[in-house]
């Protein structure tokens, strides 16, 4: 588990350890002169492997406070589970390292109609972000995104607006109120321009929408751990499964339809008339957008 995301003492896992289990904290915080930059690179992946046969991949953390959040989790029971096992073991080995071979850690794995795309902290590689831009650019009919935190980079924003400009139905669904208030404030800065360029923005109402999904042309899906924000693509260890599979696509579409039933559209007039104080805080927070 990530040592920043899981602030628990080793004694919490006493029973597991006494019965032969292994527990490792990924990159414990180090109090050094470059404390923030070194410790900001976290393992954000969410994977469960069972008996080398079953894999759970998606957005959910194993925490009490998020039990009522809307998540996206895919259960996989095919031979691709062995690939996820190998990926997990690589991270299990480097759990306390701050430097490692990036080429190995971000290698794309193609398995039939599926591809597993991995990211590690990098200012330039960002393979998941680049793959998403490729998929959005290839869209001819529809793009749907579900994400809890929406702070897209310039090239992602451009890809979405360009897609809308050529007639693609682009929908971005995010929570009305996420669990990170600063992101909710900052994202407002980007919503108006996206809306005026044809991007449909929707807010999920009941509670926090924590799902992280992309669906292109009702055919190509992506399910995994990254948010559509700077931090996930630039600083975190992330993983997604991208592919074409009718059974999975059907479930993803059903998930999106249920989400939309509990969502409301973005109000552009309300956005234009937001207070000066809110605009000021958007401006103040903007330089820190890569770290939120």
Beta-strand proportion: 15-25%
Work out the radius of gyration. Answer: 19 Å
Shape by Cα distribution: globular
Ends apart, CA distance between termini: 20 Å
Description:
The protein is built from 11 helices and 14 strands. The chain is an alpha+beta fold. It has a 9-stranded mixed sheet, sandwiched between helices. A 3-stranded antiparallel sheet has the order 1-2-3, covered by helices on one side. A two-stranded parallel sheet has the order 7-12. A hairpin with a 2-residue loop joins strand 4 (109-111) and strand 5 (114-119).
SSE topology:
Layout: H1 14-18, H2 35-39, E1 47-50, E2 54-58, E3 73-76, H3 81-93, H4 102-105, E4 109-111, E5 114-119, H5 127-138, E6 142-146, E7 150-151, H6 154-165, E8 169-175, H7 181-196, E9 200-204, E10 213-216, E11 220-224, E12 228-229, H8 230-235, E13 238-244, H9 246-261, E14 263-265, H10 268-272, H11 276-285
Parallel strand pairs: 6-8, 7-12, 8-9
Antiparallel strand pairs: 1-2, 2-3, 4-5, 5-13, 6-10, 9-14, 10-11, 11-13
Helix pairs in contact: 5-6, 7-11
Q: Which key phrases capture this entry?
A:
single chain, 292 residues, alpha+beta, 9-stranded mixed sheet, 3-stranded antiparallel sheet, 11 helices, globular
Q: How would you summarize this macromolecular structure in one to three sentences?
A:
This protein has helices at 14-18, 35-39, 81-93, 102-105, 127-138, 154-165, 181-196, 230-235, 246-261, 268-272, 276-285; strands at 47-50, 54-58, 73-76, 109-111, 114-119, 142-146, 150-151, 169-175, 200-204, 213-216, 220-224, 228-229, 238-244, 263-265.
């Amino acid at each position: 588990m990530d040592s920043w995301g899981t602030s628990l003492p080793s004694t919490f896992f006493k029973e597991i350890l006494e019965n032969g289990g292994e527990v490792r904290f990924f990159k414990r915080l180090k109090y050094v002169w470059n404390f923030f930059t070194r410790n900001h690179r976290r393992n954000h992946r969410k994977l469960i492997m069972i008996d080398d046969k079953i894999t759970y991949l998606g957005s959910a953390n194993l925490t009490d406070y998020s039990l009522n959040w809307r998540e996206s989790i895919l259960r996989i029971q095919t031979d691709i589970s062995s690939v996820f096992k190998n990926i997990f073991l690589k991270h299990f080995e480097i759990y306390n390292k701050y430097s490692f071979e990036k080429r190995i850690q971000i290698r794309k794995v193609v398995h039939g109609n599926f591809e597993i795309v991995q990211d590690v902290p990098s200012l330039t590689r960002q393979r998941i972000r680049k793959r998403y831009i490729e998929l959005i650019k290839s869209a001819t009919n529809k793009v749907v995104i579900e994400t809890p935190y929406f702070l897209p980079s310039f090239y992602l924003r451009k890809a979405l607006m360009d897609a809308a400009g050529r007639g693609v139905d682009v929908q971005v669904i995010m929570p009305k109120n996420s669990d990170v208030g600063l992101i909710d404030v900052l994202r407002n800065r980007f919503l108006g321009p996206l809306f005026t360029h044809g991007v449909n923005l929707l807010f999920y109402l009941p509670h926090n929408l924590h799902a992280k999904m992309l669906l292109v042309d009702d055919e190509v899906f992506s399910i995994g751990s990254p948010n559509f924000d700077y931090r996930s693509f630039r600083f975190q260890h992330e993983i997604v499964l991208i592919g074409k599979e009718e059974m999975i696509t059907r479930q993803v579409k059903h998930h999106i339809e249920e989400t939309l039933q509990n969502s409301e559209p973005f109000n552009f007039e309300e956005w234009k008339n937001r207070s000066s104080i809110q605009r000021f805080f958007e401006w103040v927070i903007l330089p820190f957008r890569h770290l939120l």
